[in-house]
Amino acid sequence: MLAGCADALSTVHPAGPAADAIATLWWVMLIGACLIFLLVMALLALAFRRSGGGGERIWLVGMGLAFPLTVLAALLAYGLVIGERLSPGDRPDLVTVRAEGRQWAWRFSYPDAPGLVTDGVLHIPAGTPVDVEVTTIDVIHSFWAPRLAGKLDAIPGHVNVLRIEAREPGEYAGVSAEYSGPGYLDHRFTVIAHDADGWTAFVRGVTP
Amino acid sequence: MTILRFRAPGMSLDKMPIFAWYMLVVALMILTGFPPLILGSVLLELERAFGWPFFQVAEGGDSLLWQHLFWLFGHPEVYIIFLPAAGIVSTVLPVMARTTLMGSGWIVAAAVALGVLSFGIWVHHMFATGIPHMALAFFSAASTLVAVPTAVQVFAWIGTIWKGKPQLKLPMLWILAFFATFVIGGLTGVMVAVVPFNWQVHDTHFVVAHLHYVLVGGFVFPVLAGLYYWLPHLTGRRRFFRMGEPAFWLVFVGFHVTFLAMHWVGLLGQRRRTFTYESEQGWEVINLISSIGGFITAIGFALVLIDITIGALVTVGGRRNPWGAGTLEWAMPKPVPAYNFASLPPVRGREPLYDDPGLDLLIARGEGYLGDPADGRRKTLVVDIASGRPEQVVVFPANTALPIVMALVTGIAFLGLLIKAFWLVPLAVLGVAALAFRWVWGLGSRRDEGLLDAGHGLSLPLASAVAHPPGWWGTAFLLVADATFFASLLFGYAFLWTVAPNWPPAAYLEPGLAGPMLGLAGVVLAPLGLRLAERGLRSRSAMAPGLAVALIGAGASAAAAVLAVRAAADPQGHAYDAIVWVIAGYVLLHVVLAAGMSVFLAARRATGFVSPDRYGEVRIVRLWTDYAAVTTLLGLAALYLPGGLT
User: Fold this and answer.
1) What pLDDT, in 10s, does the model give residues B313-365?
2) Which of B128, B152, B270 sits opposite A142 (nearest CB)?
3) N or C: which end of chain B has fewer CB within 10 A?
4) Looking at CA atoms only, how far is residue A130 from chain B in angstroms?
5) Given this model, what pLDDT does residue B317 score?
6) Is the ipTM value over 0.90, yes or no?
7) Does a structural domain hold residue A79?
8) What's domain B504-645's superfamily in CATH?
9) Which of A29, A68, A175 is opposite residue B147, by nearest beta carbon?
10) B218-238 as b/e, with b when 16 or more CB fall inside 10 Å?
């Protein structure tokens, strides 16, 4: 089974632009967080070695206000830019698919191929942005293919749109990431990304 | 209430201990944070028991409404947990560093800022629910912003250690563990507040690790510091065995072994709320390490428990103030006498025991305020909120089992709902009403006493003989919580109206003429009646005509609410009709409560508990009546608005 492979669900082994951007964001934040942590610990350790240093202004205005505001403003801007880039927007080559969750299975359909329905396996073209319209017919689920993009909830009565993209053809693991009862553990799906010929054949109804 | 009005004389707000400041913020947050959850639970129970479809999308409800109501409570709740712990750090750390707290004004401002900000960031638990991007950006910014007041506090604490001469005693060890752990939790907290990253780690073990760093680092460790700090105060004993230090190291090391690597397994894709996983995903080693760390932590906590039990029960007695702290609790005699403090000390500074080294003796000799036990009543002072100037004397009631019995009967009402024994519920509610009546009836006095001697040449009135006694303030704060509940209800109504897919319902309520007219009459008459009653009482003429007007007003409001319910369709059919029932029921409940209080007031006047000089109870009922009138106005407006617009 695909989900059994090492790193099949890993967010730090991205296989598409959205997951790439978020993995990079993580490494940047990790380095920043480590530096800040070491700084705070160093200040704490020094506090035990000497006494009397540093006026109130330095501690409160400098370290307490200015320092976090600067770091947070930079981080927030970075996060917003990535968030904006990852959000669905119009693209000429855009492909749309529908994902419908239920307890405990996923069913996928394709506006490009009316009538075509696949259970547990989502077919997409590789190297092309794909908008997944996520919804559910019972309780809340969450659509998550970690190597392709972040997760998005499937909420009764609502349709949420998630942009995913696989750089290379291949199989990618996906799971539901919102607890939904006894079958939650095995509430999985697979994403198969086809090359151009494979996708054309799939849309025409020829199972590759 | 207690923090604002029951302080030592002279303790103005700026001289209040920092811990009390934190608890004041926490108390206000509890009053405004819990009502959304209570509303959510009420709606859920109505859906479960009677099939009113608030969260069923097919009948006009929306499951997202539950998420909003829950997190409206859920995020402030995180700070309701954290702020008392931060208060402990702010109290214990300066004593351990043998200095005073750096920038205490800043710390108070930071605590208030955290309290306010925490209500604006509930959506950050819902980043993956498909909320519009502009809203996500706003809540992401607000969520990262909470790091600023937190940073102010952390650096003020570190600056305090720099300023002083720190000692590595056991409470200080726990505070250092707090720093190391909480800073990591705060940094990962900022990470998950960044929306794209949140989309990946939401509902994975990364979040599990983060919340343990924040809750254990931000709450459990400071509380253990506080426990070891105040243990000599509670027991009057010294620590004997040095078991606390090894226990500390086991917990500290065990905790990080358990949870540090868990971040990584979350990034590798392990979801929350799963009890097992398939092998070969690269998760085994990390989970094994976590399990070992869990056992080490558990052993450490067991040792802490044993250490504290031994410390509390069998060690030798110690000095009264072993840390050399400056706050008033350390003036308490050991063992604690039944009356706590023999008299109330005048307070001149933030650390009264540093300002007046002989203060504990002055208290014990009864040379403070209210030091004369002659009349055998338990009394304390009520002070002005800002200045701490004594204003009233409060006589506490004698020992009674009524509160605990009433709590039990209240519990039975909820138990009845839970096990679906619905016949039990009205019985229990009647029991609660009867007990409440009995309890309130037993308070107060039937004679006017004039001014009482409070000591130090001060003469003060009794609390029952002023316009705004403690009961009025308590009512005001209760109504703040009640108003938050009502506001959450109106939010839920507006949310369903604008967001839920299956709206509008088949038909909105038609305003007509009778409902709005009756409602308006009630809104005007009930508050007017209470004012007439008070004027009648104070001018020593009759109070009854005013109360009669108030009751007529209550009747009109109640009739308006009943008309709305009768006009609504079946509450099981559509969430709109269910909401109409709930809003009208809320209005009806408050109108009936206020009317019952007017009747109670008439009985109190007839039996002499209320007199022209003891009119505080009239003001309390007036406050309730005004509140009921406002909710009637808003509730009916909300009910008739959609029908009136279309």
Assistant:
1) 877 777 788 898 988 888 888 778 877 888 888 888 888 888 888 888 888 88
2) B128
3) C
4) 17
5) 76
6) yes
7) no
8) Cytochrome c oxidase, subunit III, four-helix bundle (1.20.120.80)
9) A68
10) bbbbbbbbbbbbbbbbebbbe
